[in-house]
Amino acid sequence: MKGLYAEDGPPVEDADIINMSVPNPIAKRLQIAATNEMMQRDSPLLHGLTAAGFAVDSGPDGSGLWIKYLSRGGGYYIDVGASQLIADKKIKIKQGREVKAIKAHSILLEDDSELEADEIVFATGYQDMRETARKVFGNELAERVHDVWGFDNEGETRGMWRRSGHPGFWFFGGNLALCRFYSRLLALQIKAIEVGITKA
Q1: Three-class SS of residue 19?
Q2: Which Gene3D superfamilies does the record match to this protein (predicted)?
Q3: Which of 124, 127, 64 is nearest to 96 (CA)?
Q4: What is the pLDDT of residues 34-53, one digit of tens each?
Q5: Quick count: other Cβ atoms within 10 Å of Cβ 132?
Q6: pLDDT at 1
Q7: What is each CA distance from 120 to 92, 94, 106, 110, 189, in whole angstroms?
Q8: What percent of the chain has pLDDT above 90?
Q9: What is the DSSP string of 121-135?
Q10: Are 99 and 109 in contact (CB under 8 A)?
């Protein structure tokens, strides 16, 4: 069976149209089945991660990484080899504690416990992009723009690649496939405003 983006698959532009033409609520249902299959296949690794203290979840309603990505724009982890090292306890983790101080070779946590570390990875969470806009452009703009990521009442992605709520201000992001597909749609919206087909 050919994969959409496999070497023997359709041209990339056709694959993008096929991929992006599935409404988000239907994509979520499809992803629930796919995620369930993946979790069964990865069961030994997932059990090892859980035993090592790594927080594992299957996404919103068990729909996996893709829907979590569209829901939050973050909050997921893609394994590139570290998961087995964590499961084997070759990489140790500690979650759920606030960092009080960073020292030369350790981290001091809120409960005054100290964790020696060769490397420190800051995975401190994700905020809505409007909060980044607030830091860069100020409160007035941030209060006008809509929430970004997640789904509106029609199942469409909120605030991204469409009118933001502030004239002339657009949010654009996502992985390469999303950017490749939605950049044209965003450009068409801006062009329509510029030539007077629609109002800003």
Answers
A1: helix
A2: FAD/NAD(P)-binding domain
A3: 124
A4: 999 999 999 999 999 999 99
A5: 13
A6: 47
A7: 11, 11, 9, 16, 43
A8: 57
A9: --------HHHHHHH
A10: yes
